[in-house]
């Protein structure tokens, strides 16, 4: 619960929103004052949490950037509908860099290891973030087996700089399939092709149902032969960097399932 409050305050969520989350989870009303007092109590621990060693190292870590609009007050005062004076607010787009640890021991444990607000997903932003986790003990010799990410190339560069080839690097399957779907909508436009697009995406998803990397490659070959003439861009997108989306085949079944998508980060944010 404390981690959720700290993460929520890092996302600049309102006290009211955090109060609603706590009330729903505890099935009891939690006031704004209670939330504010708790934030003040645990805020000093935030910097410590970002520097203390990670004693229980997860087997898998997901990296992702969550874009949001940060609201800040200005010095300009306006009068609202109830004739109250309020300072105007303005929004600025920022990205929350997040590392989510996933344990493969059957416990289902997942935990946000670190987060950082940044102006963008550049290598200059990702590199110190990833390196800070390495300094805290997130290393292969202590149990880390794999990292996963979306298609952000500069995140990939940061991971390569810190870890080299010492861990398996998995690209997010969800993002890969979404990119394929986007290309297919461009090439198979309109309501008339709706069922065709659905059939195509079902076959694309089936590529990743194979039990080995070799089987996935074979399924992609069949997919490409079937669809290349009708949606060449979609097939080319699917074929590009395929190996990085099936790297998890070298791991056990639990780890493979966990590494299918970075959307766990989005669900953790919403939860």
Task: Characterize this entry briefly.
The protein has 271 residues and is an alpha/beta fold. It is built from 13 helices and five strands. The protein has a domain of 49 residues.
Strand and helix order: HHHHEEEHEHEHHHHHHH
Oligomerization category of the chains in this entry: single chain
Number of strands: 5
Structural shape: globular
Largest sheet: 5 strands, mixed
- Give me the side-by-side strand order of the main sheet: 3-2-1-4-5
The unreliable regions are none
In terms of topology, how is this protein built?
Elements: H1 2-10, H2 15-26, H3 32-42, H4 44-49, E1 60-79, E2 85-102, E3 110-118, H5 123-135, E4 146-149, H6 153-163, E5 168-171, H7 173-187, H8 194-207, H9 213-227, H10 232-239, H11 242-245, H12 253-258, H13 263-270
Parallel strand pairs: 1-4, 4-5
Antiparallel strand pairs: 1-2, 2-3
Helix pairs in contact: 1-3, 2-3, 5-6, 7-8, 7-10, 8-9, 9-10
Describe the structure.
The structure is a single chain. With 271 residues, the protein is α/β, with parallel strands linked by helices. The chain has a domain at 1-49. Helices cover 49% and strands 20% of the residues. It has 13 helices and 5 strands. The chain has helices at 2-10, 15-26, 32-42, 44-49, 123-135, 153-163, 173-187, 194-207, 213-227, 232-239, 242-245, 253-258, 263-270; strands spanning 60-79, 85-102, 110-118, 146-149, 168-171. Strands 3-2-1-4-5 form a 5-stranded mixed β-sheet. The radius of gyration is 22 Å and the shape is globular.
